[in-house]
């Protein structure tokens, strides 16, 4: 049957009330065959009598009953640190979400780490860049650049750090309650459980080579740990100026930290605000751009897409509903809570709604040297109005009321 004829047949069937055929191809209900709970005519098609985990299912109302505008299937763009296995040691813990667990996440892997007061993530380095945002507490970070210039800094909630690939570093929780932070690596397969550790290298180097390398007797290495430490409990470090002096810090090293939460918002409306960090204001961050977005209750991050990179986002606080649009057409809606993650492929349209009673705060990470986006309303108001009228059947006087600049955040 010709598709147009079939569409007319289905519409007629719905109009005349033929049994088992739901109304379709209407505003908010666009598809053939019709999808969504509103199109379920038989009572049993609306129920789920089989096995279930109510506690888990209740976290995903839009998976259990998607909007009628959702269509077909898409790769799952939801993941969470809440069900990620914790590696706990004396001094702290870590859990991760990598592409092994989250197939869609090709460009970014994430780690959530906690260090006690004095807890140390041992001296190490990566083959990938490490980007981080502090979530709670205070942390001392150290690194050495390729010109041999050391950095020793203290960071607290809302601060970022960035270590280019291959630069050695360490992390240590400070008093009174240590630190918790989120790490992102610019490779979806990177794992915090597989890093280059100084203890491993020293233990697996012949003693005579160690003696020759450091110009000391072999015997001084007899008490080195034979197993790596990874995370271990250390002493709370002295005041920052003392550690800087003892590390021979001198002026000139490139800044590896940025106080994102204290930065001037790139955008602020009654619906929310966005604070951006990329290579333009955080020059060392060549491969990761970030946006800290705060959305007020009832507010919405407008319909938009990112033309230059996939988006990996972590919910710091609040509740969100996100819909992603793809070719096909395909559309999927999911719900997010604190410590959940979404991943949206480059150029796919999406929006973010605050569905809770409190502020929603999300940190979004992009494998790029700069943050970029395209706003749907900005586009529609910067082409000839007749083009929009003929495409969407919207009267010009209605189009004239659309926001003419990027609104970014829409209020309730």
What features would you describe in this structure?
This protein is of the alpha+beta class. It folds into three domains: 3-70, no CATH class; 85-258, Jelly Rolls (Sandwich), CATH 2.60.120; 265-410, Jelly Rolls (Sandwich), CATH 2.60.120.10. It contains nine helices and 25 strands. It has helices spanning 3-15, 54-57, 61-64, 198-203, 207-214, 240-246, 376-380, 385-392, 396-399, and strands at 78-80, 87-89, 92-97, 109-115, 119-125, 130-144, 150-156, 159-163, 169-173, 179-185, 196-197, 231-233, 257-259, 267-269, 272-277, 289-295, 300-305, 311-317, 320-326, 330-336, 340-344, 349-354, 360-366, 374-375, 409-410. The strands form three sheets. Strands 2, 3, 4, 5, 6, 7, 8, 9, 10, 11, 12 and 13 form a twelve-stranded antiparallel β-sheet that branches. The longest helix is centred in the N-terminal third of the chain and has 13 residues, at 3-15. It is elongated. It starts with a helix and ends with a strand. Residues 1-22 have low confidence and may be disordered.
Please give a quick description of this structure:
By secondary structure, the protein is α+β, with helices and mostly antiparallel strands. It contains nine helices and 25 strands.
The CATH topology of the largest domain comes to Jelly Rolls
Helical amount: 10-25%
Q: Write the CATH homologous superfamily of the largest domain.
A: Jelly Rolls
Overall outline: elongated
Give the overall pLDDT as a whole number. 93
Q: Which blocks of ≥5 consecutive residues have pLDDT under 50?
A: 1-22
Which class of the largest domain in CATH terms?
Answer: Mainly Beta
Radius of gyration: 26 Å
CATH architecture title of the largest domain: Sandwich
* Overall number of domains: 3
Number of helices: 9
Largest sheet: 12 strands, antiparallel
Structural class: alpha+beta
What percentage of the residues does DSSP assign to strands (E)? 25-35%
Number of strands: 25
Distance between the termini: 45 Å
């Amino acid at each position: 049957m010709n598709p147009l004829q079939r569409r007319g047949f289905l519409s007629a069937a719905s109009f005349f009330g033929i049994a088992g055929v739901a109304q379709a191809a209407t505003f908010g209900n666009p598809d053939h065959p019709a999808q969504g709970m509103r199109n379920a005519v038989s009572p049993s098609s609306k129920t789920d009598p089989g096995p279930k985990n109510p506690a888990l299912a209740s976290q995903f109302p839009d998976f259990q009953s998607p909007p009628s505008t959702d269509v077909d299937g898409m790769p799952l763009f939801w993941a969470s640190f809440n069900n990620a296995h914790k590696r706990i040691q004396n001094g702290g813990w870590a859990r991760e979400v990598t592409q092994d667990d989250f197939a869609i996440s090709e460009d970014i892997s994430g780690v959530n780490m906690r260090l006690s007061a004095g807890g140390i993530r041992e001296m190490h380095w990566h083959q990938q860049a490490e980007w981080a945002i502090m979530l709670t507490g205070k942390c001392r970070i150290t690194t050495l650049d390729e010109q041999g210039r050391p950095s020793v800094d203290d960071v607290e909630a809302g601060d970022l750090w960035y270590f280019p690939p291959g630069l050695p570093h360490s992390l240590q929780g400070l008093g009174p309650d240590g630190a918790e932070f989120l790490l992102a690596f610019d490779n979806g397969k990177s794992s915090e459980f597989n890093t280059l550790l100084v203890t491993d290298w020293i233990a697996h180097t012949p003693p005579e080579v160690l003696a020759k390398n450091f110009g000391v007797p072999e015997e001084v290495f007899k008490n080195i740990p034979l197993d790596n430490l990874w995370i271990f409990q250390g002493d709370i470090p002295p005041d920052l100026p003392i550690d800087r002096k003892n590390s021979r810090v001198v002026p000139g090293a490139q800044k590896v930290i940025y106080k994102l939460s204290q930065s001037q918002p790139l955008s602020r409306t009654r619906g929310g605000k966005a604070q951006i960090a990329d290579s333009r204001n955080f020059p060392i961050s060549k491969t990761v751009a970030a946006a800290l977005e705060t959305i007020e209750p009832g507010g919405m991050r407008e319909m938009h897409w990112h033309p230059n990179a996939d988006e990996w986002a972590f919910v710091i606080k609040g509740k969100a509903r996100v819909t992603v649009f793809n070719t096909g057409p395909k559309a999927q809606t999911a719900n997010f809570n604190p410590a959940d993650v979404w991943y949206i492929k480059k150029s796919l349209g999406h929006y973010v709604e605050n569905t809770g009673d409190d502020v929603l705060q999300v940190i979004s990470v992009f494998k790029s040297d700069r943050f970029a986006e395209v706003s749907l309303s900005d586009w529609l108001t910067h082409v000839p109005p007749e083009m929009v009228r003929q495409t969407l059947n919207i009267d010009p006087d209605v189009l004239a009321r659309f926001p003419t600049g990027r609104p970014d955040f829409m209020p309730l």
